[in-house]
C-alpha cells in the first residue's frame, strides 16, 4: 500500500520525440493517495495502458519520475516494485493447477509453504474457485481463467498497488457485475491502492472513488463521478461520461449572456475574456427542459430506453439531446429552456470559471 | 426434407481413386505380393508364405541395422531437440535480426540431401577436406573412411547441421505466438528465467515440439542419402542403416522377396514408433 506520485511523466514509443504529437503520454503530473481506488477512463489509444505500464514498471518513461511513498522507483523492475497487475486477457500458467497458479507469485518470493497455503485458501474463497482448486488451469473457460488472473493479483497482501488493465473485457456481463462488486468489497476490506483501466464509463464510475479521464495522451480531469457528471472540465469528459453525452453548442459570449443564433441564454455568471478562442456552451440532456416556453426546437426522433425517453432534437441547426421522464409528453410546439445550474462554458474545449 | 440419395455420386470420386491406386495402392500391393513369393528369375514365382518375414526377423544383419537406426534416431533427437529449443529461445523477436536469422536458419533446409552428403564427404576428407585436414593437422586422428566412431560422428554432425534448423523454426513459431502479456505477468509475479521457460514457453511450444519430434524421428529413421554419399554404409557395416541395407538387398543382390518383407517390416516399425511418440506426447499434453 503506497501513495503514488507521478512527477512530470512523459512517454514516447519513438526514440527522438520532437513534437507533442510524438508522445503517447504527453505530461502527467499527479499524486494518487494511498488506499485510493482510481479508474483510468478513456477511449482506445488515449495512453491509459501506457500510464499503467509505467506505474507497474513494464515501461520506463521517456521523461519524469515515479515515486512510491516518496521513494524513487523509476529505474526499478516490476518485480522490485512489489505491485500486482491483472491484464486484459487472462494469463494463466496452463500446466499448473488453479491453486499452484495462485501460489506462484508467493513461492517466487520465497514465502514459507504454510503461509502460502493459508493465503491461497483465502484467495480461493474470495474469488469462489475452491471447488476447482486442484484442476489444471488448461481448458478452463475464459471467465474462470480471468478469475485466476485476478486471484494472482490479489494473493500478495503487502503489494504497493494493484493495477487492473481492462480486466473484465472477456467476462460475461452478469459475471462482470459480480466481480466488480467483489473487487470493490476487497478494496474496502484491505485498503490496497487500486488503479483500474477501462473504456467503459459504467465500470469506472461504479468501481472508483476517483475517476481519471484521459484523452489524447493527457489527463483531462480527475474527479468523483459526480464532479465528472456536473462539471466536466473538458468537452471530451462531457461527451464521454453520461448517456447520451453532454450537448455542446457553439455560442458567442456577451457578459453574463451567451448568444446561440438569435437566442440569448442567461448564464450563472460572466465569463472571463475569450479573445480568439472557440466558445461553446455545454449542457447535459438531463438539464434541458422541454415545454411550451423558451427556444423553439424541431424534434427528429424519440428513443424509448425504458424508464426514460431520449428526444433527439435540433436547435438553430445544432443537435440537441433531451432526457424526458417516461410519462412526460412532447408538446405540439416544442420549446426548450436550459437549467442554469447545468450550464458550463468552454473556451477551446476547456471549462471556464464563471464569475459570481 | 428428405435427403436425396444418388449412388451415382460415387463416380465423382473415381478419378481420385484411380490416381491413388496407381500412385500408392498398386505399388504397395506389389511389395506385399513380392514379400510372400520366391523367384529364380524368368518371371517364375513360387509361394513362400511367411518365410521371408521370419527370415528377416531372425537375421542378425537386420537386427544390427535396426539397432543402428534406433541409436542414430535417439542421438539425433537428444541433440537436435534441446539444441533447436536453445537456439530458438535466443533468436531475436523483432528488428533486423529476425529476417536475417530466419533466412540463415532456412539455408541448410534448402540444400538437396545428396548435396549435403557431398558437402560433408568433401569437408571431412583428410587429404583435401577443410575439416578432416584441419583436425589431423591439429593432432586428432580423424578419418571417417576407416574409423567407425569417426564415421558415426560425421554422419551425426551432418544431420545436426542439416536438420536442427527445422526444430528451430518450429519452436520459434511457437515462441512468437506467445502474447507479451504472459512475459509481463511473469515479471510481475517475480518468475525466474527458468520458471518462464518451464511454465510459459515450454507448454506453449508443446504442440510444435510434437510435430518436430515426429518429423525428425521419421526422417532420421528413414535416413538414406546422406550416409550413402558420405560413407556408403561403411566402414564395414558401421553406418549401414536399414534403408541402406534394404537397397543393397533389393538392388544390389536382387533378393526381391526378402527386400519386400524387410520394407514392410521397416514401414510397420516406423508406423508403430510414430504412434507411440504421438500417443505418449498427446497423453502428456492432456495431463498437462
TrEMBL record, chain A:
<dbReference type="InterPro" id="IPR027417">
    <property type="entry name" value="P-loop_NTPase"/>
</dbReference>
<dbReference type="InterPro" id="IPR047641">
    <property type="entry name" value="ABC_transpr_MalK/UgpC-like"/>
</dbReference>
<keyword id="KW-0067">ATP-binding</keyword>
<dbReference type="Pfam" id="PF17912">
    <property type="entry name" value="OB_MalK"/>
</dbReference>
<dbReference type="InterPro" id="IPR003439">
    <property type="entry name" value="ABC_transporter-like_ATP-bd"/>
</dbReference>
<dbReference type="InterPro" id="IPR040582">
    <property type="entry name" value="OB_MalK-like"/>
</dbReference>
<dbReference type="GO" id="GO:0016887">
    <property type="term" value="F:ATP hydrolysis activity"/>
</dbReference>
<dbReference type="GO" id="GO:0005524">
    <property type="term" value="F:ATP binding"/>
</dbReference>
<dbReference type="GO" id="GO:0055052">
    <property type="term" value="C:ATP-binding cassette (ABC) transporter complex, substrate-binding subunit-containing"/>
</dbReference>
<dbReference type="InterPro" id="IPR015853">
    <property type="entry name" value="ABC_transpr_FbpC"/>
</dbReference>
<comment type="similarity">
    <text>Belongs to the ABC transporter superfamily.</text>
</comment>
<dbReference type="InterPro" id="IPR012340">
    <property type="entry name" value="NA-bd_OB-fold"/>
</dbReference>
<dbReference type="InterPro" id="IPR008995">
    <property type="entry name" value="Mo/tungstate-bd_C_term_dom"/>
</dbReference>
<dbReference type="Pfam" id="PF00005">
    <property type="entry name" value="ABC_tran"/>
</dbReference>
<keyword id="KW-0813">Transport</keyword>
<dbReference type="GO" id="GO:0015408">
    <property type="term" value="F:ABC-type ferric iron transporter activity"/>
</dbReference>
<keyword id="KW-0472">Membrane</keyword>
<feature type="domain" description="ABC transporter">
    <location>
        <begin position="4"/>
        <end position="241"/>
    </location>
</feature>
<keyword id="KW-0547">Nucleotide-binding</keyword>
<keyword id="KW-1003">Cell membrane</keyword>
<dbReference type="InterPro" id="IPR003593">
    <property type="entry name" value="AAA+_ATPase"/>
</dbReference>
<protein>
    <submittedName>
        <fullName>Carbohydrate ABC transporter ATP-binding protein (CUT1 family)</fullName>
    </submittedName>
</protein>
Automatic annotation (TrEMBL), chain B:
<dbReference type="GO" id="GO:0005886">
    <property type="term" value="C:plasma membrane"/>
</dbReference>
<comment type="similarity">
    <text>Belongs to the binding-protein-dependent transport system permease family.</text>
</comment>
<dbReference type="InterPro" id="IPR052730">
    <property type="entry name" value="Sugar_ABC_transporter"/>
</dbReference>
<feature type="transmembrane region" description="Helical">
    <location>
        <begin position="208"/>
        <end position="225"/>
    </location>
</feature>
<protein>
    <submittedName>
        <fullName>Carbohydrate ABC transporter membrane protein 1 (CUT1 family)</fullName>
    </submittedName>
</protein>
<keyword id="KW-0472">Membrane</keyword>
<dbReference type="Pfam" id="PF00528">
    <property type="entry name" value="BPD_transp_1"/>
</dbReference>
<dbReference type="GO" id="GO:0055085">
    <property type="term" value="P:transmembrane transport"/>
</dbReference>
<feature type="transmembrane region" description="Helical">
    <location>
        <begin position="70"/>
        <end position="89"/>
    </location>
</feature>
<dbReference type="InterPro" id="IPR035906">
    <property type="entry name" value="MetI-like_sf"/>
</dbReference>
<feature type="transmembrane region" description="Helical">
    <location>
        <begin position="96"/>
        <end position="115"/>
    </location>
</feature>
<feature type="domain" description="ABC transmembrane type-1">
    <location>
        <begin position="66"/>
        <end position="277"/>
    </location>
</feature>
<feature type="transmembrane region" description="Helical">
    <location>
        <begin position="264"/>
        <end position="283"/>
    </location>
</feature>
<keyword id="KW-1133">Transmembrane helix</keyword>
<keyword id="KW-0812">Transmembrane</keyword>
<feature type="transmembrane region" description="Helical">
    <location>
        <begin position="160"/>
        <end position="183"/>
    </location>
</feature>
<feature type="transmembrane region" description="Helical">
    <location>
        <begin position="12"/>
        <end position="36"/>
    </location>
</feature>
<dbReference type="InterPro" id="IPR000515">
    <property type="entry name" value="MetI-like"/>
</dbReference>
<keyword id="KW-0813">Transport</keyword>
